[in-house]
Structures are given as C-alpha cells and as structure tokens.
Amino acid sequence: MRTVKLLIDGQLVDGHKNTDVINPATGKMFMQIPLASENQALEAIAAAKRAFPAWAATKIEDRQAMLSKLADRLQENAEEFARVLVKEQGKPLAEAAAEVLYTEAFMRYFAAYDAGVETIQDDDDLQVEVYRKPLGVVVGIAPWNLPLLIGANKLGPALVTGNTVVLKPAPTTSATSLMLGELAKDIFPAGVINIIADENDLGAILSSHPDVAKVSFTGSTVTGRKVAGTAASSLKRLTLELGGNDAGIVLDDVDIGKIAERIFAGAFMNCGQVCIALKRLYVHESQYDEMCDTLATIANNAIVGDGLDNGVQIGPLQNIIQYKKAQKYLEAGARDGKIIAGGDVLNRQGYFVQPTIVRDIDDSSPLVSEEQFAPILPIIKYSDLDEVISRANDSEYGLGGSVWSSNVARAKRVATQISSGTVWINHHLHFSPHIPFSGAKQSGMGVEFSREGISEFTQCSVISVSK
Ligand code: NAD
Q1: 183 alpha carbon – ligand 1 mean position (Å)
Q2: In angstroms, rounded to a whole number, what is the distance separating the alpha carbons of residues 176 and 268?
Q3: pTM, whole model, 2 decimals?
C-alpha cells in the first residue's frame, strides 16, 4: 500500500497517529495517512518562520526556478497523482488527470511572476517607486473538492513572492497534497514548504497563530467567517474563497441543442461539488419544457460509477456527510418540485447519487436557495427578465453565474446586472490562472489568480524620493 508522510522543516515525518482514507466509490479504506499533532502544527509554523528571512532574500529567479521544478516533477508523476486523486476524491479519471494538468499549468503561471519595481512617478518633484515585499508565514487551508489544485494555488503565489508556507488540506483528501510534499522536499530549502494533515482540528490553531501573516482559505462560508474572526486579533491578511449558489439565466432566444450539454457539464462536473458549479437554472417559459426534457435525457444517459472504470462521467459524492446532505436535497426536490431524471441513490457500495433534474420548483425550496453541492439541478421557470435578474441576485452568495443567449450584446446587458465575481456568457465554470477570481457578498474576500491575486501575497511598499 502507498504510504505518505508529513513535510515539516524539510523532513518527511510520521504523524502522532494514522487515519484511514476512504475511497468514496467503495466506502472502504484504500490507504492510510499520518495526522499531525498540535505540536507538529506549531513546529511547522516555527520552521516556516525560521526559513522566511533567507527565502525572502533569495533571488526571484531562483524562487521561480524551484517552483518550475516542482511543476516538472508533478508532470513526471501525473499519472500516479491522477489515480490517487480518483481514489481519495471520487472524480472520474479524466477529470482527475485534468486537475493534475491544471495544477501544473497554474504553478507554471505563478512561477513566471515577477512584480519588479514599479515607478509610478518620476518628474522634477518626485521619484516614487512601488516595491512588493513578502508578508512572512502564509497558512493555506483547502477543501475536499479540488484538493490538489486548490492547495497548489495557495503554495504557488505565496512561494514566488517570497513567503514561506504551511499548507493544510481537508481531512478526507490529504493524500495528493502530502504526495506533493514528497516532491517539494528535495527542491525547496527546509521550512519553506510544510504540508500537514489533520482531522479537522488544526485549522483554527494555524489560522489564529500570531506568527502567521496571512491566511489563504478556501472552504465554506461558515468556516470562512470563523477564520476571519480568529485572524482579527493580529490583523492577518486574508483571502477567503467561500461558498456559492451560481444561477444560470437562459434567455428566450437560445438554441437548446447547442447549449444543453454545456449547461449539464457546468452543473454536474465533479459530481456537482464545485464552488462555481451551476446550481440553479432559470429558463424562460417559452423554452422551459424543451430545456427540462433535454437535460433530463442527458442526465439519464450519464454513466455513473467508480471513477477508475472506463467511460464513467460522474463519480460518487466525496464523503459520507455530503452524501447524507445530498439525500436531504433529493427529498426537498421530490417534495417541492417534480423529479424528471434520477432522484435516488445508487443501490451499491459507496456514496453514489443519480444525476437528478428537478422541474416545477421555485426559489423557496432549499434545493434552490441553498448551496446543494451535489448532482441535483433545479430548473425554475420565469417569464420576466428584470424579475429573474433580481431573483438570481437574491442570495447571500455571489461567486459566479451565467447568461445564455444567441445575442451576446443582450446577454452582456444581463450579465452586468448580476452581483457576482464572475459571469460567463454561453458557458459556465471556466477559470484560468491569468483571470482574476473572486467572490462577491458572502462568497469571499479578496482575489485569487492573475497578477492582482498574486499581489495579495505581498505588502505594497512605497519609496518616495524628493528631488
Ligand atoms: P469546510 O469549510 O468545512 O472546510 C474547509 C477547510 O477548513 C478544511 O481543510 C477544514 O479542515 C478547515 N477548517 C475547519 N474548521 C476550521 C477552522 N475553525 N479554522 C480554520 N480552518 C478550518 O469546507 P469543505 O466542506 O471542505 O468544502 C466545501 C465548501 O468549500 C463549499 O461551500 C464550497 O463552495 C467551498 N469552496 C469554495 C471555493 C472557492 O474558490 N470559492 C472552492 C472550492 C470550495
């Protein structure tokens, strides 16, 4: 059986005990991982603090080269990473391979970053320059839906800008992050990267620690608020990427045959467990029946199963808690609407739910108003465009959203009225390292990716010279 270790202060070490990692496709253990004790979490922060001055003073070219090397090593080991990712997370192998590829691509983008020194005034009176300095120890905390990618997207910007890191993945999906630690060990100086695993007990210790300068957190809004609370006493810098309940608005002029597969993919990728998945679909009354029937057919034909089996398109929910939550949303769908595809769990081992389409449901149902994070899509009928825009915005969340139309100018007029960090037109769930990503309202604080997102890992420092 494959084993993994924690990475603390440049050493691969055991934890204070091991825990089973459950394969959600079988409900059974497939490997064990070490759990860090509270002392080991504190050691990781102390190691990162010790390593910081030398790392911050390391030439940017050297930091970039080390990050590129980590991307190279990931590429060399991509197949093993993808297979372990399927077993720990549940997603189909093609999606796992894509996550590994994205992780590598994001890392290469971060590795190319150099803020340089920006001269913003140079005239007879003043010379003003802006420097970007590292902050210190950065804590990265990740969720279980895209564990490798989200973890690496905290490491990359932090390291290239000269910070040191303690990364903590989610308890049920730590294996691939610890494997990344194995690769990082021989590339980076001791203490620059530390990766530990926990049983949901170390996040608060890390994010409240006085020696931590910044927390980059991705997870639920409820936990994000706790992180903001504990960070307050020392005014830590925060990036919070939190929950979402993305609405898709289908205007009355679409070619359903052209867009239905894309809508389905936007809602059901990763078994619906993506913060920016399409979670409620508003369709104009003139095309409502056709859209419902088309999506129900796609859902009925989707192949559900173990992500390692050929041809599987939708895997299991990642963990038993999420599986039970999904069953509550199935009940809500049956109670508040009409199920036209799926509607049940699979009668087999593992945490499988049939891809489910629910019609004739309205905004008052929890399946529509809450973040379901499951393969269940409610389709809601509308007749008035202004009214549906305000219904789409009537949510505490504001992460993503989409507008679907044959007329892009018309779609843009709608898109600009949606209060969320991203609005896609005629697609959903696209993200890339050079495109800023952020959540409005209770979906987060700060920006990730792009130069703007990377600069959040730095302190802006102005030198002003009088002439
Ligand atoms: P979660 O909030 O339960 O856990 C996220 C991480 O926080 C885990 O590593 C957990 O161990 C840690 N944690 C728990 N308590 C903590 C505390 N008090 N202090 C610090 N850390 C703590 O979220 P989850 O269930 O793992 O993930 C699903 C959620 O994540 C969904 O709401 C989803 O929308 C959101 N998400 C958001 C994005 C985004 O970019 N906006 C991306 C992926 C997932």
Answers
A1: 25
A2: 23
A3: 0.97
